[in-house]
C-alpha cells in the first residue's frame, strides 16, 4: 500500500464558492472524497491537507519524509511566488506531481511561471477536479515504475 499526501494551498478551502466560472462548483471535500475512493482502486492511502499558510505547507512537506512515498500538490497562488515550497520539495526528494484546476497557461501572464515545475515529476493543469485524479494516477504509475526499475 502506498501512502500519498495531497496538499492544497491557499484559497482552495473556498472551492465551490470561489470564482466558479474558473474553478467550478466542486468543493474541496468532494475532491478529497473522490481521491480517497480512487486511492482504493490504486492501492494508495490518500491523506489530504489544506493550508492558507506557506510555512504550514513547508512543514507538511518536511513531515512527509518516511511517511509518504509521493505527494500531489496544488500550491494555488504559491505556485507562482514560493521559492520556499520549491526548496522544500527539492529537499525531501519525495516524488511530487503538481496539479492545477485551471489551465494556468491560458490565464494572466503572472500565472504562467511555476517555481515548482522544475522540481516535480510533472504537471497537470486545466482539467478541473479531474486534474487531481489524473495527478494521483500519474504519481502512482510513476512510483510503481520506480519500484520495478529502481
Ligand atoms: C490554481 C491556479 C493558481 O494560479 C491560483 O492562484 C489558484 C488555483 C488552480 O488550481 O488552477 O489558487 O492553482
Automatic annotation (TrEMBL):
Family annotation (SUPFAM superfamilies): Type II 3-dehydroquinate dehydratase (SSF52304)
Annotated binding of substrate, by residue: 74, 80, 87, 101-102, 111
Family designation: Belongs to the type-II 3-dehydroquinase family.
UniProt function note: Catalyzes a trans-dehydration via an enolate intermediate.
EC number(s) recorded for this UniProt protein: 4.2.1.10
Lyase is among the record's keywords: yes
Reaction(s) catalysed (UniProt annotation): 3-dehydroquinate = 3-dehydroshikimate + H2O
NCBIfam families: aroQ (TIGR01088), PRK05395.1-1 (NF003804), PRK05395.1-2 (NF003805), PRK05395.1-3 (NF003806), PRK05395.1-4 (NF003807)
UniProt subunit comment: Homododecamer.
Pfam families attached to this UniProt entry: DHquinase_II (PF01220)
Catalytic residues (UniProt): 23 (proton acceptor), 100 (proton donor)
Main EC class the enzyme belongs to: lyase
Sites annotated Transition state stabilizer: 18
Listed pathway(s): Metabolic intermediate biosynthesis; chorismate biosynthesis; chorismate from D-erythrose 4-phosphate and phosphoenolpyruvate: step 3/7
Record gene name: aroQ
Highest taxon listed in the record's lineage: Bacteria
Annotated protein name in UniProt: 3-dehydroquinate dehydratase
Any one Gene Ontology molecular-function term assigned to this protein's record: 3-dehydroquinate dehydratase activity
Keywords: Amino-acid biosynthesis, Aromatic amino acid biosynthesis, Lyase
Species of origin: Roseofilum halophilum BLCC-M91
The keyword Lyase is annotated on this UniProt entry: yes
Amino acid at each position: 500500500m502506498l501512502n500519498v499526501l495531497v496538499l492544497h494551498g491557499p484559497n482552495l478551502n473556498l472551492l465551490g464558492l470561489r470564482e466558479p466560472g474558473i474553478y467550478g462548483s466542486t468543493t474541496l471535500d468532494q475532491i478529497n472524497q473522490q481521491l480517497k475512493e480512487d486511492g482504493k482502486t490504486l492501492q494508495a492511502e490518500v491523506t489530504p491537507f489544506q493550508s492558507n499558510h506557506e510555512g504550514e505547507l513547508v512543514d507538511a512537506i518536511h513531515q512527509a519524509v518516511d511517511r509518504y512515498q509521493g505527494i500531489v500538490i496544488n500550491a494555488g497562488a504559491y505556485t507562482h511566488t514560493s521559492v520556499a515550497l520549491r526548496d522544500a520539495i527539492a529537499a525531501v526528494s519525495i516524488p511530487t506531481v503538481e496539479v492545477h484546476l485551471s489551465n494556468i497557461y491560458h490565464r494572466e501572464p503572472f500565472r504562467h511561471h511555476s517555481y515548482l515545475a522544475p522540481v516535480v515529476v510533472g504537471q497537470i493543469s486545466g482539467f478541473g477536479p479531474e486534474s487531481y485524479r489524473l495527478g494521483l494516477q500519474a504519481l502512482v504509475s510513476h512510483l510503481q515504475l520506480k519500484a520495478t526499475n529502481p
